[in-house]
Specification:
Layout lengths: L24 E3 L5 E3 H9 L4 E2 L6 E2 L9 H15 L25 E3 L4 E3 L1 H9 L1 H4 L3 E2 L19 E3 L4 E3 L13 E3 H55 L7 H47 L4 H11 L21 H6 L7 H16 L16 E3 L5 E4 L19 E2 L8 E7 L6 E7 L16 E7 L2 E4 L5 E2 L10 E7 L4 E6 L4 E6 L8 E6 L13 E4 L6
Antiparallel strand pairs: 1-2, 3-4, 5-6, 5-7, 8-9, 8-10, 11-12, 12-23, 13-22, 14-19, 14-23, 15-16, 15-22, 16-17, 17-18, 19-20, 20-21
């Protein structure tokens, strides 16, 4: 007999069923070798006879005989291929359940004993006749969870109907009519889904990092605005001696409180975003680690708890709004109005320039105009006529009062527009909510959805209940009125554009629906008095 090839490993002499060194080896017609006891027991449990390795089907149960040559080779090399240095168990490996003290690495798990054994403690299963009949498999942890509770057989299949793990016997009883697939097939499907989820989680992480950058930019801009506001105020107030010291202190306090509030909001959002990033990163690591496992059952069981990302907030609509400082100086200096007229003029000029940055282009909507109103072709002018226009009915049209709205509406942010009121003795303008009453009589107050000022022989009036007379006497004829709205802050302010002065602000407003600019040119009287149009004018900022 030729000399033995001592470089062969134990796998060359292992049974594909018990994974141990062959005992009484037999060979099937397809050329695969098994322990005689293993293949006999395997076929005893099958409905059809097939090779466990290549799945070749046999019409009748093969009559197997001992492979004498292979048996002699196993006998000769059996000892040498089994004698190995037994390593200690490492993290992530299955330990021997019998070892005391230093635990060795398990080399086999028994599905009958439901225990794992190192090479030393596996010896009885290789020697004792009764134990040799036990089914040995590659080392596994949590063995009891891998057996069918009903049939005490290995869970090797997945029922697609009931979404549960089953053994071979289950497919012939409770799950006989259900479609089942090997765990490997379900594993491949779920692993593909896991890869997609990993990509989605990475995308979520990137989106949150971008949001953090946006928030930091907003905070930086807010701080710059605050620093500029404070610097402008100090420059004005420090020239007025001790009488305005209190105004300076109040200014600093109000601006810093608003900045502090914005910074606190930003810090809280950043903390929340960073926590979500940490949670998502941890989840991503867990999923990446899971994606490398070859343990089908462990993968599927763990996948269920990992497939959904951690609970996170929808950040697409979250933002840090920089605080508005419109009117900060004005409220600080009201009590010193007579003394500070010249300084207040500078402040109002600066305030007007700031709000003018939020200019919007709006045009008048003829579908909302009262039948006595006439609009220009470009939708920028409106005046009252003595003859009613023959207009088609429209549910958006005003029928009781000579109002009209713009085509554009606003539901967030800040916006500003200017209306020319030159040569008029009566007018009415501001903003109104979408759902105002356009047919019957109503009060034009914030309670009914109007935030407006009007002008007549009595002067400027902010329409509220009670009516508030605006104590403002322009040095010259009022020519342009600017309207500024901060929807989110609930602020509506009016300005004398030519004089660069603030007229009035409606504080504490609450908006819950779209706002429209609203105009009323007033009645055109005998001899053409008040016949001039109201004109939506472009903003003309000056340095």
């Amino acid at each position: 007999m030729a000399s033995a090839n001592t470089s062969w490993s134990e796998e060359n002499f292992s049974c594909s069923i018990c994974l141990d060194v062959l005992s009484s080896p037999v060979t099937t017609s397809c050329g695969h070798n098994f322990c005689r006891t293993c293949i006999t027991k395997y076929w005893d449990e099958q409905v059809r006879y097939k090779c466990p390795v290549c799945n070749k089907l046999f019409d009748t149960r093969p009559d197997l005989r001992i492979n004498t040559l292979l048996s002699e080779m196993v006998e000769r090399f059996g000892t040498s291929v089994r004698v190995k240095e037994q390593p200690c168990v490492e993290p992530g490996e299955v330990p021997c359940d019998i070892c005391t003290g230093t635990q060795l690495k398990a080399v086999k798990s028994c599905l009958v004993c439901l225990m794992s054994f190192c090479q030393t403690h596996l010896e009885p299963h290789q020697r004792v006749a009764v134990l040799k009949k036990h089914r040995l498999v590659k080392p596994m942890d949590c063995l009891e969870d891998r057996l069918c509770k009903k049939h005490d057989r290995l869970l090797e299949l997945f029922c697609q109907t009931e979404r549960v793990y089953v053994c071979q016997f289950c497919t012939e009883t409770d799950h006989k009519s259900h479609p089942v697939v090997p765990l490997k097939e379900e594993y491949d499907v779920k692993k593909a889904q896991l890869g997609k989820i990993v990509s989605e989680v990475q995308q979520m992480i990137q989106e949150r990092k971008i949001k953090i950058k946006e928030i930091k930019v907003t905070v930086k801009r807010s701080k710059a605005d605050a620093d500029r506001e404070i610097a402008d105020g100090v420059q004005v107030l420090t020239t007025l001696m001790r009488c305005i010291k209190k105004c300076q202190d109040d200014l600093n306090r109000m601006v810093k409180e608003r900045l502090k509030s914005t910074q606190k909001q930003a810090e809280d959002l950043i903390t929340e975003l960073e926590q979500e990033i940490e949670d998502l990163t941890n989840r991503s690591s867990e999923m990446k680690q899971l994606s490398h496992t070859k343990d089908h059952l462990h993968f599927l069981k763990t996948f269920k708890s990992l497939k959904n990302p951690p609970h996170t907030r929808d950040w697409t609509t979250v933002e840090v709004r920089p605080p508005t400082y419109v009117g900060t100086f004005r409220r600080s200096l009201d009590q010193l109005e007579e003394t500070l007229n010249r300084k207040m003029k500078k402040l109002h000029d600066a305030e007007l320039k700031r709000v003018q940055q939020y200019e919007v282009d709006v045009t008048l909507d003829p579908d909302t105009a009262h039948c006595c109103l006439t609009l220009s072709e470009d939708g920028k002018q409106v005046h009252h006529g003595s003859v009613e226009n023959n207009l088609r009915e429209n549910p958006k049209r005003f029928t009781q009062y000579i109002f009209l709205l713009t085509r554009q509406s606003f539901s967030s942010g800040r916006f500003y527009f200017e209306i020319q009121v030159k040569d008029k003795t009566q007018w009415f303008l501001g903003v109104a909510k979408e759902s105002i009453n356009r047919i019957g009589e109503t009060m034009w107050t914030p309670k009914t959805g109007y935030w407006t000022i009007s002008y007549n022989k009595d002067g400027l009036v902010f329409n509220d209940c009670p009516v508030w007379i605006i104590k403002y006497q322009p040095r010259a004829e009022l020519q342009k009125v600017g309207v500024f709205v901060d929807y989110d802050e609930g602020l509506v302010s009016f300005y004398d554009v030519e004089a660069g002065l603030h007229l009035y602000s409606a504080p504490g407003c609450t908006f819950s629906e779209p706002l429209y600019p609203i105009l009323n040119p007033g009645l055109s009287h005998y001899e053409g008095i008040n016949s001039a149009p109201l004109i939506i004018s472009p903003v003309n900022q000056t340095d």
